Amino acid sequence: MRFELFVAARYLRAKRRQAVVGVITGISVAGVAVGVASLIIALAITTGMRRDLQERLLSSTSHVELMRIKSDGIRNWRPLLDKLRHLPHVTAAAPGLYEPVLISRGARSGGAIIKGIVPAEERSVSDLLGEITQGSAAPLSESGPAILPPIVIGSDLADSIGAEAGSTIMAISPQGELTPYGLVPKYQRFRVAGIFHSGFYQYDSSFAFARLTDAQALFGEPDVISVISFKVDDLYHADRIGREIEDAAGAGFQTTNWMEQNRELFRALKLEQIVTFIVIGLIVCVAALNILIALTMMVMEKTRDIAVLMSFGVQPAQVRRIFMLQGVLISVVGTALGLVIGYVAAWAGGHYRFIQLSADIYSIDYLPFAPRLIHGVVVAAVSLGVSLLATIYPSASASRVHPAEALRYE
């Protein structure tokens, strides 16, 4: 062990006449530990929120959507669909017809969006039909007319109107049809074949799936779709692939992708992560001030010891390193404790999901944790760096002690 490190460690272990220095040192270690643990937990939460929201968005919706610039829908869509699904980087494609409706059951009602689908193709671009908690989505695959067409609705929508698998609901389209008495809304009774729960409030509270032919009949749109949804092999290049799909589709079409649709959400999450790091990082700065105070008091207490060491030939630079290493040791112990506490707490939170959230506010129903190794590296570097800066003044003061003056009255 180097001489400076040996003396620094000895000073930290030795019993001091001034107990207040030891208390401040303990507070400094605890402060660094709390700051580091808080940063690890906060970064794990913000990363978990981003990860879970992105995963649920990507599992619940397509990567790219193609639609007409005009709102008259896509006609003669089958040849176009066959052409586009064979484009490079496109792994799956499915037709869909979106329209807003009012869904009611008895006196209870709620707004929703019905998507007319071809189930076999829809499953290739969205996982919502795989999240059935009541009933089954199998009736959507049945062909032919039915007295009550099947429909699959979200769990929160089902709760709001009091529906369950097997219930009969009514969907009222605002499109309506023109009669001698004016515009009369069209309506259709459906049988709830299944209820899905994705955990993503936006979909669970407002989405419903019906057969494409039933949706076209309800909306008065024979053999018309409003969108073609795509899954691509590189979701982070969905914008570039979307432009290639636009070019292949020809004039009059435009695409949107999952990044464009959720840009503000992910931008807000990124900003939240940065602000959280800065705000909670102030705890580490407060702990660094405690290190500065503890070392300053240590220098005042050990003035005679410093003078004796310097009279034995210890160089001022060595004295300065002794107190810098003392501060670094405090920081290392606190940082190590903080990393252990932070990662254990983040793992426990992610594994047991003991913190529940309101899904209608946060879009997910539990607080996710996603600790990353890189976060520990960055937080440890910041903690050690700030603590090292806090040692500069007291260590410099120690190196300027004059042995003759310090020992004059001894």
UniProtKB/TrEMBL annotation:
Residues 278-402 form the ABC3 transporter permease C-terminal domain. It comes from Acidipila rosea. Belongs to the ABC-4 integral membrane protein family. LolC/E subfamily. Its main location: membrane. Keywords: Cell membrane, Lipoprotein, Membrane, Transmembrane, Transmembrane helix. InterPro entries: ABC3_permease_C, Lipoprotein-release_system, MacB_PCD. Coiled coil: none annotated. The keyword Membrane applies. It is a multi-pass membrane protein. The chain crosses the membrane at residues 20-45, 274-300, 321-348, 373-393. This is Lipoprotein-releasing system permease protein. It is found in: Cell membrane.
